[in-house]
Structures are given as structure tokens and as C-alpha cells.
Amino acid sequence: MKTTKLNGSTTLALGIGTWELGEGDASRSAREVAAIRAGLDAGLTLIDTAEMYGEGAAETLVGQAIAPYDRSALYLVSKFYPWHATAVQMRQSLEASLQRLGTDYLDLYLLHWPGQTPLAETLAGLADLKKAGLIRAYGLSNFDQPALKEARALPGGQAIAANEVLYNVEARGIEFDLIPYQAKIGMPLLGYSPFGSGNGQQISISASIKQLAHSMHLSVHQVLLAWAGRGSVIPLVKTGSAAHMQANLGALDVTLTEEQLAIIDANFPAPTRKVPLQSI
To answer: Which residues form the NADP-dependent oxidoreductase domain (predicted)?
Structure first.
């Protein structure tokens, strides 16, 4: 299975997403815990969550799921609201997230998207949290290439360890500038929603891609996931069942050929110019 480096840690090149987890009844939550554990038992270590997801419900569910596991073997990522981006508020958010997760530190803490608090102030607060040992690293989410470059020029900006953005076949704009830039500076890029999302934002799949998946003896989701993880991006996938988790893991063994990639490109062309960063 494909592996990658994330701030010094070697991990399988796939992360467990948690958006919308923990928001159902006890039966659904039990299935979601089982799904997370199926991923961990198979060797996944990266779990991505946020205080926004169910207003803490996802973090609580993750805390339940990881309780029996060796914390030092996991890589936990969470994110805080832009309106919690002052030093005092982000510490309060972090402490609440840690309590819900049942841990005393995060491996990576991200500003969820740009906000009104001056970024220099936010970076200073994150640096203090790192110095205090409450987080191992900090980064950003939903920052495009120009905004990320500006952030890195600020005090504490060189310590920005990762950036998390939307990436799937319908949202390829980051291939024009952000992916090459982060690869050049050696900054990990986490890609969320490789299958699109709900609320009318599902990806429309053509007959040619369905035929491609059939010819490879894979599901369309496995093809899309293999595509999203084919380069330096680490895809983050949310699943509520152990069976789907196993299917996602199967994509780590898939390498798409140039001919297969061309079929996807014909349906979802690569960007030829700078486009606004997309988000969900």
C-alpha cells in the first residue's frame, strides 16, 4: 500500500475523514466507530476532524473510537473556527477538542479557513500552543497558493506544516499552482471530499468512467480515490461503515496508467489557468 511522510511520520497515504460523523443515533454511531477502527486495524493512522463537525460530535465519536489504541501511533488532526483564531479563543477551542478526543495533544491543528483575525496573531497563538506541548504542529485549511505564500512570509509562517483543501475530479484548480507550490516547499497537502459531497454537490459520473472502473474490477469510488491520491495529495475520506472502509483501502494498491488517466481527463479536464479555490 502507498505510504507518505507527514511531518516526519510515515503513514499510509489515506486519511480518515469525520465530517458528519457522530450526528446520528446510537446504532449509527456504533457503525461509525467500527468503520474508524477497521481503518486503524488495517494500518491507517491519520484521522482528520474539526470542532465544526457536529459542533464537537465528530471529535467525541473519534475519542470513543481511538480509546483502545496506542495514542502515540496515531496522527490526530483537528481544526478551529476562524472566529476562534485569537490566542485566548483558540486555546479554549483546543482544550475542548482535546477533552472530546480524550488526548492531551494534537499532532496537527489547523485554522479551518481564513477569517477576520490577523493571521500573524493566529500564527503567534499557534506557536505558543506548540511551545506548550498541546500541539505538535500547526497549519491552515482552505488557503489558496497566494494566501499560503503570504502566510509563510509572516512571523511563524515558515512553521506552517500543512494545508488542507478540497480536491476531486470536479475540483482540480489546485493542480495549476497550489499542488506544485506545496510540492516544491515540501509541505503536505491534505485533500478533502475526494468523492464530492452532499447538498447537490455529488460528482456526476459518465458512462466511460463507469466502464473504466468495470474494466479494472473496481468501484467508481475506488477509481476516484486512486486518482485523488496518485500524486502528493493525501486524500481524506469519510465513511460510516467498515465495508466501505475496506473498499477505500483497496484504492491504495491501485496505480492508474496514462491511458486510464486520459479517460478521466477527457471527462474532467485539468486546469489551464488560475481559478478561484473551491471549498465545501
So the answer is: 14-266
Q: Chain centroid to CA 22: how far?
A: 18
**Options 53, 109, 138, 167, the catalytic residue:** 53
138 is an active site residue: no
200 pLDDT exceeds 80?
no
pTM for the structure as a whole:
0.96
Q: Under CATH, to which class is 9-204+233-254 assigned? A: alpha beta
Residue 193 has φ and ψ, to the nearest 5°, of 55, 60
Q: pLDDT digits over 27-68, tens only?
A: 999 999 999 999 999 999 999 999 999 999 999 999 999 999
Residues facing residue 106 across a β-bridge: 135
Give dist(CA 264, CA 96) in Å, integer: 42
Q: Where are the domains of the chain?
A: 9-204+233-254
Q: What is the pLDDT of residues 128-150, one digit of tens each?
A: 999 999 999 999 999 999 999 99
The Cα 69–Cα 65 span in angstroms is 8
